[in-house]
Write a structure and sequence with these properties.
Elements (H helix, E strand, L loop, with lengths): L1 E5 L4 H10 L4 E6 L10 E4 L7 H9 L3 E4 L6 H6 L1 H22 L2 E7 L21 H16 L4 E5 L1 E2 L9 H10 L4 E4 L3 E2 L2 E2 H13 L4 E5 L5 E2 H12 L6 E4 L19 H7 L6 H13 L2 H6 L5
Parallel strand pairs: 1-2, 1-4, 2-3, 4-5, 5-6, 6-11, 7-10, 8-13
Antiparallel strand pairs: 9-12
Length: 305
């Protein structure tokens, strides 16, 4: 399969491109953060430039497109809602229209943050209520994709892993500070269901191979607080968990509101694939194993100056 992956220098994109390249012909689109690697074909392009999406599709002629590119910084979306809407809503809709006309398959990556987190235990039938500009534009992006291409897959996710910058995921935040023996806080009133990138990407490839379509929650089968997540990272790496103090998100001073209980049900994808999504311990063991294998340094070396 020829797979086009947007946002290939981001946390999700780089890991997905490396995983998919083991068995597929992968083209990774990058913009402001160029990469140098022979693991997959790197394509430099700015999706905001008119006709870029169509040109990429025509030149590469992919069988599958996995759209990871987004303005994912929640606070940056609050300060520049126009850019957030272009990247998180308009571009996904444009890609979906192009893919629908061209006969390829598309998987669009969305977020658990489309819910307000008041209820928790959300399934795909629950009505979203986004609290931030980021979440609003991502939800609008879901609808744009679905309207333009009903055969597309829309995957709501929460993920962690190693990134090219070393600071793109919550797991890296805990790792970096704990390794440096720096005291930090972890929210004990924010619940989520994070899935390790490698696990998430294998599920994505199965979803495309099985010709699935529609909306899915692709998250861990286990949910916990962000404080507990940090404690588990400390223990698996042998760091001091007492460096992490529990704190409330209400006292954080963050500019954009955060949803407190983003516990999502993954029953639908479990039924489709015939197996549960991995739990927290399984993913953290892989996160730790990849660190021991030198994986973080390997992908950081992909970044060009």
């Amino acid at each position: 399969m020829r797979i086009l992956i947007t946002g290939a220098s981001g946390l999700l994109g780089i890991n997905l491109a490396l995983e998919a390249a083991q068995n597929h012909d992968v083209f990774g689109v990058v913009n402001k953060n160029p990469l140098k690697t022979s693991a997959f074909k790197v394509v430099k392009a700015d999706l905001l430039v008119p006709d870029t999406c169509q040109r990429l599709f025509d030149d590469i002629q992919p069988d599958w497109i996995i759209h990871c590119a987004a303005l994912a910084n929640i606070d940056a979306c609050e300060t520049d809602p126009s850019r957030a809407r272009k990247l998180n809503t308009e571009i996904p809709g444009e890609l979906a229209r192009i893919v629908a006309r061209g006969g390829a398959r598309m998987l669009h990556v969305s977020t658990d943050a489309v819910f307000d987190g008041q209820k928790g235990d959300y399934d795909e039938q629950d009505t979203p209520n986004p609290l931030s500009i980021y979440a609003q534009t991502k939800l609008e992006g879901e609808r744009a994709v679905s309207d333009a291409n009903p055969d597309a897959i829309i995957a709501r996710v929460n993920l962690y892993g190693w990134s090219t910058t070393g600071n793109r995921s919550l797991a890296e935040f805990f790792f970096n500070n704990l390794q440096a023996e720096q005291p930090i806080y972890g929210f004990n009133d924010v619940y989520f269901c994070p899935l390790y990138t490698t696990d998430l990407l294998k599920i994505f490839l199965k979803m495309l191979a099985y010709n699935l379509n529609g909306l899915y929650h692709v998250v861990s089968s286990e949910c916990l607080t962000k404080y507990d997540f940090g404690v588990r990272i400390a223990r698996i790496f042998g760091f001091n968990p007492d460096l992490i103090s529990p704190a409330s998100v209400l006292d954080s001073g963050l500019s954009a509101p955060r949803s407190p209980r983003l516990t999502l049900r993954s029953d639908k994808i479990t039924r489709q694939l015939g197996e549960k999504t991995p739990g927290i311990l399984s993913g953290l063991k892989k996160f730790h194993s990849h660190f021991l294998q030198g994986y973080p340094n390997q992908i950081r070396n992909f970044v060009t100056s």
